[in-house]
């Protein structure tokens, strides 16, 4: 479970808050979609949830652990896929996964089992002996996802996970997300892709200018908007207004 209480952040030298008084609860057993136009504060929020950025005010709890006061315990709960897959290019895929496993103190057997399981689903295992610099964008993205799953986190947080993936990989990732949620884990994704959110997310929040302007299910939102069928139209209407 993820809890945000009154989170605000203003970047140095900026006059406007990147995120402003955010309150959010993301439950166990759900896939939660965080939607918003460019520059609305999605990545800032993800970086604050994962402890990469410190908010100016407010509190984040990760399964009850305060990300600032109890960072190791909180971070052990999280698997994180950043929006930029440019990392550790000189390592091979295996070396990267070993490195991540060591950080999370995962034994060899668990590491191997999870590489076989999730690497198999993501169809990345054939290239794990190659250096990451030789990977395509989509292959790097798959490796990052595999790395985020290797310690069996109870909370999976992915920033724009679909970008760069082909149709089959997207379907496989959706299946992984649904399986994790059905196992009682928390899945939090940011996306620009409204259709994706509509297809897979149990609940969504829409952020605009750093403030959450809606949180709930897609169906509740449609009912609120006079039963308009097209979520994309509703989203554009809400975020452009
Ligand atoms: N390092 C930074 N320094 C200054 N301003 C920043 C920095 N990172 C983000 N911002 C600003 O904070 C606001 C929110 O940015 P953020 O990256 O969180 O948005 P986003 O919703 O993830 O955007 P996108 O969909 O384009 O990835 C924007 O106005 C952005 O210009």
Small molecules bound:
adenosine-5'-triphosphate
Instruction: Give the distance, in angstroms, between the N- and C-terminal Cα atoms.
Output: 32 Å
Given helix and strand content, the structural type is alpha/beta
Give the beta-strand count: 10
Return the average pLDDT rounded to an integer: 94
Order of helices and strands: EEEHEEHEHHHEHEHEEHH
- Basic shape: globular
Main β-sheet description? 6 strands, mixed
Computed Rg: 18 Å
Sheet with most strands: strand arrangement: 6-7-8-3-9-10
Task: Estimate percent helicity.
Answer: 25-40%
**Proportion of beta-strand residues:** 15-25%
Count of DSSP H/I helices: 9
- Which spans of ≥5 residues are poorly predicted at pLDDT below 50? none
Organism: Aceticella autotrophica
InterPro entries: AAA+_ATPase, ABC_transporter-like_ATP-bd, ABC_transporter-like_CS, ABC_Transporter_VariousFunc, P-loop_NTPase
Domain ABC transporter: 2-234
Protein name: ABC transporter ATP-binding protein
Overview of this structure, please?
This protein is α/β, with parallel strands linked by helices. It has a domain at 85-153. The protein is 39% helix and 23% strand. It has 9 helices and 10 strands. It has a 6-stranded mixed β-sheet with strand order 6-7-8-3-9-10, with helices on both faces. Strands 2-1-4-5 form a 4-stranded antiparallel β-sheet. A hairpin with a 2-residue loop joins strand 4 and strand 5 (65-66). The two termini are 32 Å apart. The model has no long low-confidence stretch (mean pLDDT 94). The structure holds adenosine-5'-triphosphate (ATP). Keywords: ATP-binding, Nucleotide-binding, Transport. GO terms for molecular function: ATP binding; ATP hydrolysis activity. Residues 2-234 form the ABC transporter domain.
């Amino acid at each position: 479970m993820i809890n945000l209480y009154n989170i605000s952040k203003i970047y140095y030298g900026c006059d406007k808050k990147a995120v402003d008084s955010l309150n959010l609860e993301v439950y166990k057993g759900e896939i939660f979609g965080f939607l918003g136009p460019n520059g609305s504060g999605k990545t800032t929020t993800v970086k604050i949830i994962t402890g990469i950025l410190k908010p100016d005010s407010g509190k984040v709890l990760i399964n009850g652990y305060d990300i600032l006061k109890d960072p190791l315990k909180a971070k052990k709960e999280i698997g994180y896929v950043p929006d930029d897959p440019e990392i550790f290019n000189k390592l091979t895929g295996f070396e990267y996964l070993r490195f991540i496993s060591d950080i999370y103190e995962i034994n060899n057997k668990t590491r191997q089992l999870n590489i076989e399981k999730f690497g198999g689903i993501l169809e990345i295992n054939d290239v794990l002996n190659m250096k990451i610099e030789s990977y395509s964008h989509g292959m790097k993205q798959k490796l990052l996802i595999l790395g985020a799953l290797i310690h069996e986190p109870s909370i999976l947080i992915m920033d724009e996970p679909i970008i760069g993936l082909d149709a089959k990989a997207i379907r496989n990732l959706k299946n992984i997300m649904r399986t994790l949620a059905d196992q009682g884990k928390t899945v939090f994704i940011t996306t620009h892709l409204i259709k994706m959110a509509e297809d897979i997310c149990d609940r969504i929040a829409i952020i605009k200018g750093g403030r959450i302007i809606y949180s709930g299910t897609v169906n509740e939102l449609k009912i609120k908007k006079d039963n308009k069928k097209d979520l994309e139209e509703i989203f554009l209407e809400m975020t452009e207004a």
